[in-house]
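Notes from the pairing session

We agreed to fold both candidates in a single pass and log them together. This is the raw record for the first candidate, unedited. Please don't reformat it; downstream parsing expects exactly this layout.

Candidate A
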Amino acid sequence: PVQQLTRQVNAVTRSMTAAERVFEVLDTEPEVVEATKSVSIKRIEGRVEFQNVSFGYEKHRPVLKEVDLVVEPGEMIGLVGHSGAGKSTLINLLLRFYDVTEGALLIDGIDIRDIKRSDLREQIGVVLQESYLFHGTIYDNISYGRPNASPAEVLEAAKAAFAHDFIINFADGYDTLVGERGTRLSGGERQRIAIARAILHNPRILILDEATASVDTQTEAAIQKALQNLVQGRTTFAIAHRLSTLRNADRLVVVEGGRVVETGTHDELLAKRGSFWKLVQAQQAMNEIVAIGG
């Protein structure tokens, strides 16, 4: 009886600790607040403009400094720079996880702070390095963003993502259970399911954050083909460690110390022999060292 009582006390203690953590999350004040008279936008063109934007996660420690950048509808931008340069922070502001400290961020000429958050996020699609899949069927994971999509639309999205062929090879096809976090699929298969989901969602603005970083070279080629279908006609912001994967971007934006220091095409920036050229040289040297070590 004493041992049983001890176990019960320990269980209650653990439950109370877990409950405290839950309440801490529930009591957390949101970083951004919905505007009193927020504007509802059901469809956007996808023009994004950073106007003299400065931002810091902590006061007096700016991460972005006076960023001016205009991205036209349908343009693909590659964000380039060392780790900590501010690339991901630009994306966090675009997703409105935070509000700018100074300046303004506009979408189709409207200050992002005045746009209804649910409408804003409905217009943005994200494909990450490790895309999250929930424990359900492949069909459910693809249609997650548009639960009312028809089977034909889901099928077309999977084909555009080069996922259909491997899906139908499973015994249960689109009814195959993917496992918790998609563990029953390979990394490349998970990414193509995530891309199919984004294609079906049909966002006007797309964010690709290291979308091919965790796959081998052969799988990367298939994912790149899928991404070409995904980015077509959408305003796209892409972050990639392997600079060669951004060669197809309309423009590269080099971020250094929280500032935009260079913009141009891949070839234009190489010809300038500036910050981007130095990044490419450093990456090539690192690849050679790895090759020798291998």
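Candidate B (folded immediately after A)
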Amino acid sequence: MKRASRALLCILPGLLTALSSPRLMAKSPDFAIGMDHRARFVAWDNTIDLNADQADPFTFTRHRTRLSLRWNPSKRWEIFTRLTNEFRIYMKPEDQDFTIHELVFDNLYIRWKSAFGINSTLTVGRQDIMLGEGFVVMDGHPMDGSRTIYFNAARWDIQILKNRSLSLFYTYQPVTDDQLPIINDQNQPLIEQPEEAIGVYCQGKQGKTAFDWYVIRKLIKATNDLPVASSVNTAGARFDASITNHLFATMEGAFQFGTFGDFKRSAFGGQGHLDYQIRGTLKTVTLGTIYLSGDDPDSERMEAWDPVFSRWPKWSDSYIYTLIPETGGKVAFWSNLTSLYGSIRIGVMKPLDLLLTLHRLGAPQSNYGGSGNVRGNLIILKALFRLNKNLNGHILWERFCPGSYYPAEADDYNWFRTELMLIL
């Protein structure tokens, strides 16, 4: 079986390359084929437990291939599908068996433009949805990593005025994919509990200022393993403002109410940043802050911020794993966190940029076994390069030094990744 899987892996890139030949890839008004392949090398140790004495290093490669087909039978209709496979090859731990893993429908939707005879677009089916910067809506199921980020959804975008639009959406996310066929099904977990949501997202612009507001209701259903059902109602707003030709401000905040089992829910989350854009070698200087409320164990309410559909590496690719032990085993469950951070982006040469970010992390609630509220210092250094329009990548290094929020014996960690992305 392993030999057959490896043989298939050798054949698959050739087939995809053939399908992606210039003749087939030539886009016509009604039909297009797309393909991309992402290769990553990842290495880290004690990122989850912050314990250097525990021998638990991870070193592996990730290989994601996507093939898409788009058909426009008319100007008003679009049908889109994308098939995705991602497999890993582990060097450490050495007892990880190789598998080609699954071939899944990453996207499969029908889009109707000028829906119902008005200036609107209706999209029904499996689709990617990102609202704003992804503070509340970005990834429908975090447990398969960045393999896919889709939502099983219906979305209706309505253009109300020239600078005003309204989006209505409904989503349903099962624990595993039981909605569409899977080749070589591995029963991949997608989310810990089934989630269902309905939302309204309004966007507007006045001059150089953009203003959004939203209301999202998410229901989290009970399972045998996790018998606590809950509801999360999130009401928030976001604005982007051009202060000068070089200085830009972004702020977003949201309140949450609802239930967590038998408890009432009351939480707040927000972020903001100033970006100063400069022409030349020093491209951008950013100063920002993050606040996500934590739960007070002595109260009769659940005050911890729920990330809604934003469990993705928005602020760090490594720290999403450090959060696992304090969030009931949930990856990227951004909650009980504060940050004051700064970053600079430097253009080293035409195809290469360097991005340096420093976070001073804290916690509104100090309930993790340490003596204080300082999570620690997080350093992120990322080199981004684009060799041509079809080939880009990055080299990423992150280092975290724990503070008083953690036990005194907590150790530092280093986290490393390289990526190469081919787009045809």
